Amino acid sequence: MADESVVDITILGAGPAGLAAAYYAGHRDASVRIVESLEQVGGQVAAVYPEKHVYDVAGHPKVQGQALVDLCAEQGLQYGPDVRLGEEVQTLERLSQNGEELLSVTTDKGGPYLSRALIITAGHGAFEPRKLGIEGVEAWEGRGLHYFVREKDAFRDRTCVIVGGGDSALDWTLGLQDTARGPIALVHRRDKFRALETSVNEAQRLQGEGRVKILTPYEVREIHGDGEIRAVTVENTASGELEQVECDALITLLGFHSHLGAIAEWGLELEGKRQIRIDPTTCETNLPGVYAAGDVAGYPGKITLITIGMGEAAIAANNAVASIRGEKVQPKYSTD
Ligand SMILES: Cc1cc2nc3c(=O)[nH]c(=O)nc-3n(C[C@H](O)[C@H](O)[C@H](O)COP(=O)(O)OP(=O)(O)OC[C@H]3O[C@@H](n4cnc5c(N)ncnc54)[C@H](O)[C@@H]3O)c2cc1C
What we know:
Bound molecules: flavin-adenine dinucleotide
Order of helices and strands: EHEHEEHEEEEEEEHEHEEEEEEEEEEH
Structural class: alpha/beta
Oligomer: single chain
Number of strands: 22
Distance between the termini: 39 Å
Shape: elongated
């Protein structure tokens, strides 16, 4: 749907950095539109680890991921930005309208969205889970195949097979112990897990109690069911032996493919393959009026943490506002 209304700042991505940028822009009385490819705000925190605790965000000694991004959303959306969910940004153009230089963004579903500045807070890009290499695997999505654990309750009394060798696979093998029906089968294609040793040791201890069944080196070869998943065939890749494991939830935690996608075609200078190079003193990219903050923004020595992204969001928003208004950069305190 076309939307010709011009806002001061378009924010691309509604993770912690994008929500912080929306707050700082709104606080400076700038109008904002947020475009987010997922159907929810909260970025990686909401999508990947909503139920984990985070300990290193300033002012929060211990906070659950989802609770943190709920607070970020409450703060970031308080000035009523136009929020477009489920739209992946595709093109960026410059145009002149009524004597004003504008940036025009289109998405796979909408636009053009016009603004005076753009802040890219796209994290690792629009991310997609890595999938099992089984033909037609997508057909099981929504029928017992999961790529995330968003709510533990969705797995209450379900028999789960978890696939993966990293922290997420181990964390949920342990984290679903009080929710899923045991034993939880943990399938990994290698002998050794990449996850934290303490988690692996705990899973092995639970195996001794019959609450976890560790299958290594195994790979899932087939999914069976009658509309919903009922079992998987796994292969011991060392011996070639096949085994059928009953389950009604198959949770594959194999990481994500993420790439900047269309954003990489906009003529932005990159820092390595995955980040947009910014001047950290302004957060501006090589394209005038285009800023970046958070995981997507790169410069030598960059640390990709929530706190850092929030700080960059403040720099980007204040610089964008100053540039739009032709003013000196002068942040304003929020206290009243
Ligand atoms: C398992 C795990 C644990 C972590 N633990 C911590 C921790 O303890 N402390 C800490 O500080 N950090 C932690 N991090 C890192 C932290 O989550 C990131 O630094 C933070 O989420 C970055 O925020 P962001 O807003 O820059 O990007 P993201 O959170 O990645 O959000 C970017 C958003 O942009 C959207 N987007 C991307 N491309 C497009 C597009 N083309 N069009 C529209 N929307 C788009 C994405 O869908 C996404 O919602 C952890 C990360 C993981 C994976």
